[in-house]
């Protein structure tokens, strides 16, 4: 028997708003996000974010190709041009993305990406947790020694904090 190949096509749903603002939202499917969509793996999580160059939809998961381009585990979709782009030159290495979160640590918003991966774009200190500033990957405290499953943020005693949860023994070398 020949193995079957499964291709997943992305589709987004959005609302058309009538001129009358009291009218109900009319959901519509938008399949312009790419064909063949994913060539392998899965897509989850997804987060919209504007790095200052226009809003994009950032998609993580476990894939090697999305929207016809090679991009390992994370990519950006530009709804204005209906195009996909990888993030960096080498993107994430050997793994998958479990969480994407927008957070402002006081030095400006960044997109924080976590999961189980060796590094982001070959940068030191980006194992399993990295930040994207819109043009390059940055280390977040030196990385984490194993999987990061969730990210969230909040103020603690007036200071913005990024909370990291997962299956790890040390973060940035700290037990």
Describe it for me?
It contains no helices and 16 strands. It has strands at 12-16, 26-30, 42-50, 55-62, 65-66, 69-70, 74-78, 83-86, 92-93, 96-104, 109-116, 119-120, 129-132, 137-139, 148-156, 159-166. A hairpin with a 4-residue loop joins strand 13 (129-132) and strand 14. The N and C termini lie far apart (50 Å).
Provide the residue-averaged pLDDT.
Answer: 85
Low-pLDDT residue intervals, each spanning 5 or more residues: 1-9
How are the strands of the largest sheet arranged? 3-4-7-8
Q: What is the overall shape?
A: globular
Classification by helices and strands: mainly beta
Individual helix count: 0
What does the secondary structure layout of this molecule look like, with pairings?
Blueprint: E1 12-16, E2 26-30, E3 42-50, E4 55-62, E5 65-66, E6 69-70, E7 74-78, E8 83-86, E9 92-93, E10 96-104, E11 109-116, E12 119-120, E13 129-132, E14 137-139, E15 148-156, E16 159-166
Antiparallel strand pairs: 1-2, 3-4, 4-7, 5-6, 7-8, 9-12, 10-11, 11-13, 13-14, 15-16
């Amino acid at each position: 028997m020949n193995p079957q190949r499964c291709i997943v096509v992305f589709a987004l749903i959005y609302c058309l708003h009538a001129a009358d603002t009291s009218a109900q939202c009319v959901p519509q499917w938008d399949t312009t996000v790419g064909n063949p969509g994913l060539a392998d793996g899965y897509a989850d999580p997804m987060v919209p974010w504007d790095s200052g160059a226009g809003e994009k939809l950032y998609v993580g998961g476990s894939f090697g190709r999305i929207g016809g381009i090679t991009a390992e585990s994370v990519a950006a979709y530009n709804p204005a041009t209906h195009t996909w782009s990888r993030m960096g030159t080498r993107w994430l290495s050997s793994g998958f993305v479990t969480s994407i979160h927008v957070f402002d640590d006081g030095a400006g918003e960044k997109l924080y990406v976590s999961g189980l991966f060796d590094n982001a774009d070959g940068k030191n200190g980006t194992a399993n947790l990295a930040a994207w500033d819109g043009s390059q990957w940055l280390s977040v405290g030196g990385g984490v020694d194993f999987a990061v499953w969730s990210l969230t943020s909040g103020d603690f005693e007036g200071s913005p904090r990024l909370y990291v949860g997962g299956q790890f023994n040390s973060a940035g070398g700290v037990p």
